[in-house]
Write a structure and sequence with these properties.
The complex is a heterodimer of chains A (682) and B (57).
Chain A: H1 2-26, E1 32-33, H2 35-60, H3 70-73, H4 85-96, H5 100-108, H6 113-140, H7 147-154, H8 157-186, H9 190-213, H10 218-241, H11 243-248, H12 253-269, H13 273-301, E2 304-305, H14 325-332, H15 341-346, H16 360-383, H17 387-394, H18 397-400, H19 404-413, H20 420-429, H21 442-456, H22 463-497, H23 510-532, H24 539-567, H25 575-597, H26 605-613, H27 622-658, H28 676-681
Antiparallel strand pairs in A: 1-2
Helix pairs in contact in A: 1-2, 2-6, 2-16, 4-16, 5-16, 6-16, 6-24, 6-25, 7-8, 7-24, 8-12, 8-22, 8-23, 8-24, 8-27, 9-10, 9-13, 9-22, 10-13, 10-22, 12-22, 12-23, 13-21, 13-22, 14-24, 14-25, 16-21, 21-22, 22-23, 24-25, 24-27, 25-27, 26-27
Chain B: H1 2-18, H2 21-31, H3 37-48
The chains are: A mainly alpha (682), B mainly alpha (57).
């Protein structure tokens, strides 16, 4: 009876999923309710988790519930600790969910809500969740080794080197692009800049609370910090209204970029632990709270999506990001569908906490499904805005013009009516001087989120508070990524340069710390500087570069996973990783080709450089812009070549194993029986 | 009610793990020290001087 009840329940979930997907895919010309996206997402994840991940676990990976995990075997109370599965789930989710799944879908909303939503759902269920799950499982089977180490063991030394270079490249690009998002969100915004500036004394106060008053009571300290941040957001309105104070907190994009570069260097090179740890805790606290609040807000408001299912910009003429729906929608949304960066976390701290092999399914597959849902919420936040408003905020001045009347007329001519007066009124409502040309995704997301919060809580008077809360949340979190990421990058540079000259590898030698911090900051700072000086807003060229790098890292992870499956004697199940791998290769290689060679100057780096070179009168900056374009083309080509190498190396390994020229064998840790089965039984 | 209590306890344990309160408790157990300013400073010093955890974008 119970079995029939279960079958009936899953039939209902399947039908509901089909209905919701049909509504979002087939509706044209009329607005639909956002709850259809929520239902389609939740049902897709439920079906994927219940059936597909179970198939992966039982048939493909053949997990063993009697096998001890590294957390049990190597338990040292520090890195390796057997931990409750829900606790690991939360820990993993907190590490993988950042501003990426919020910003990517907002940028991809220029194509309409349909392409991005379908990619988020299908990409996550068949790609991203699978990648996270299998890499976590394989790392657990290998004493919690990192992706780079697994690649070296299973694919070969070349695999290790390529994985290392892909990781360092993606870290540099992530830091440059996320810093650019903060700059675009805070430029000419005294309220936002004041709130973020206030997080420095708040973090220091939290540091004193945690260290001196109540040692180790992080949750209490974070709550205190959260209340103070809310007060800083509230107080920001008076700063913005005061002509004297506003002057001190109004920064141009280049000035903000310099401040952020200095901050990144200080965070990496100076002993500022009193500031960094509390800020890290505060940003995580705010992030988890905001994601939960956004989910509740959407469910409470059940908003209508004003963005059409498909816009005219599927043809590649989009103002936010240039390029056709294929491949650029799939590059723009990385986190939320498939993100290579997750493979670093799935082979980093998480495998060292897994108590039982069988729990990798919840943490790996389930954690990614949860992140994917965050991306769906971001898509909803962007699409509840009137399309004209969305494009006015997200389009760069270089495309729509910098004068409000010109920008409004250009956007209205595309069939998305918007007026300069309406935008001025909205800007006033959210406490900004202007909302035109606020590229980068964060401001559009913040307006959408403020709209949802203000309407679901019944007061539009709070729009400005909610808007600045959203901006603060993204900026705070990105700054914590910047300081952690810069330190990770510094350690990686030290690891590599230590092979060249041993003292450069010593993490305690201060000249080495300064030198390597300077290197990593110069690397991402260069991309940031390039972005802020770009007349097209920077995001147009840098976000696809970042998305490509992230998806290329996913390609590396899926190559490694496929190789292991072949070596495990499970070649017949290899399509579970080969199909997403093939798709990612098609997407990333096409995008890279177009970014380098497209004759359209808005897409192709080289075409843009040629266009600038052909100008009859050159501005003083033109030579630098041409150099930037050529450098971006070179970086893209280098990334593709690296990944092509690992794809070919992996394919060679598959052929050798399948043809019997090489004995199949994997580098797993030896079997040790777990004690938890007996403990649970008794 | 018992189930609700269990859920609450798990959420609290999750937050303690995410915010390193659990790691500090394990540090105290491992080193045999008691909770104090000095031991927390030592814990933070150890934690922050190793390669930091990567965070996704």
């Amino acid at each position: 009876m119970k079995r029939w009840g279960s079958i009936l329940a899953w039939v209902v979930v399947s039908l509901l999923c089909g209905l919701a997907v049909a509504v979002i895919a087939l509706h044209r010309g009329e607005s639909i309710n956002a709850m259809w996206l929520v239902v389609a997402a939740l049902c897709s994840y439920a079906l994927g988790y219940r059936f597909y991940s179970k198939f992966l676990a039982a048939r493909v990976l053949a997990w063993d519930q009697l096998r001890a995990t590294p957390a049990e075997r190597l338990d040292n109370g520090r890195d390796f600790v057997p931990t409750n599965k829900w606790v690991v789930f939360g820990h993993h989710f907190a590490a993988i969910a950042g501003p990426g799944p919020l910003v990517g879908p907002v940028l991809a909303a220029q194509f309409g809500y349909l392409p991005g939503t379908l990619w988020i759902l299908a990409g996550a269920v068949f790609g991203g969740c699978v990648q996270d799950f299998v890499i976590l499982f394989f790392s657990v089977r290998r004493d919690g080794k990192s992706l780079t180490e697994i690649a070296r063991d299973e694919v070969g030394p070349l695999g290790g080197v390529v994985a290392y270079l892909a990781v360092i490249s993606i870290i540099v690009l992530i830091l440059g692009v996320t810093a650019l998002i903060v700059v675009n969100a805070l430029k000419s915004s005294p309220w936002g800049a004041f709130t973020i500036a206030m997080t420095i004394p708040i973090a220091l106060l939290m540091g004193v609370y945690l260290r001196v008053l109540r040692p180790g009571k992080v949750l209490e300290g974070s709550l205190l910090g959260f209340v103070l941040v809310l007060l800083a957001i509230w107080g920001g309105q008076w700063v913005a209204e005061s002509p004297t104070l506003a002057r001190y907190f109004t920064f141009s994009a280049p000035a903000l970029a310099i401040l952020i570069i200095v901050y990144g260097f200080a965070a990496s090179a100076l002993p500022v632990w009193l500031l960094l740890a509390p800020r890290d805790y505060l940003s995580t606290f705010v992030k988890l709270g905001t994601i939960a609040a956004l989910a509740l807000g959407i469910i409470a408001l059940r908003p209508t999506l004003h963005m059409p299912a498909l816009t005219r910009f599927v043809d590649g003429t989009g103002p936010v990001l240039a390029g056709k729906i294929f491949p650029f929608a799939f590059i723009t949304i990385a986190c939320g569908a498939v993100s290579g960066f997750h493979s670093l976390i799935a082979s980093g701290t998480t495998p060292k906490l897994i108590r039982r092999e069988t729990e990798t399914r919840l943490v790996g597959y389930g954690g990614m499904a949860a992140e994917s849902f965050v991306a769906v919420m971001a898509m909803i936040a962007a699409c509840v805005l009137q399309p004209g408003v969305y494009f006015a905020i997200s389009s760069p001045a270089g495309v729509v013009g910098s004068a409000p009347a010109t920008a409004a007329a250009t956007i209205s001519s595309w069939g998305f009516p918007v007026s300069a007066a309406g935008m001025a009124s909205l800007a006033q409502e959210v406490g900004e001087q202007t909302l035109f040309n606020r590229t980068g995704g964060a401001p559009a997301f913040a307006v959408g989120m403020a709209h949802i919060f203000a309407h679901s809580l019944g007061s539009r008077l709070l729009m400005a508070i909610w808007y600045h809360f959203a901006i603060m949340f993204e900026a705070l979190f990105i700054l914590s990524i910047l300081d952690a990421g810069t330190r990770v990058g510094r350690f990686m540079f030290q690891e590599a340069l230590g092979h060249v000259w041993r003292p450069l590898g010593r993490t305690s030698w201060y000249p080495s710390v300064l030198f390597n911090s300077g290197l990593i900051v110069a690397a991402w700072g260069y991309f940031l500087w390039q972005g802020v000086r770009d007349p097209l807003g920077g995001i147009n060229s840098l976000w696809p570069l970042f998305g490509t790098a992230n998806q290329l890292l996913a390609t590396v992870a899926l190559c490694v996973a496929t190789t292991i499956l072949m070596k495990m004697g499970r070649a017949r199940y290899s399509p579970v990783t080969l199909i997403p791998l093939g798709w990612l290769v098609a997407v990333t290689f096409t995008a890279s080709w177009q970014k380098i060679y497209s004759p359209n100057p808005r897409i192709g780096f080289l075409a843009h450089a040629r266009q600038l070179a052909a100008l009859p009168v050159r501005a003083p900056e033109t030579a630098r812009l041409i150099f930037n374009d050529r450098l971006d083309a070179l970086v893209t080509a280098a990334l593709v070549m690296l990944v092509l190498l690992i794809v070919l190396e992996s394919a060679r390994e598959w052929i050798r194993v399948l043809s019997g020229r090489k004995p199949a064998g994997v580098h797993e840790a030896p079997f040790v029986a777990t004690r938890f089965v007996a403990e649970e039984a008794s | 009610m018992k189930k609700l209590h269990q859920v609450g306890a798990t959420v609290l344990a999750m937050l303690r793990e995410i915010f390193d309160e659990a790691a500090y408790r394990r540090f105290l157990q491992r080193t045999g020290k008691s909770c104090s300013r000095a031991s927390y400073r030592e814990f933070l010093h150890q934690k922050l001087n190793v390669k930091p955890r990567p965070r996704c974008c």
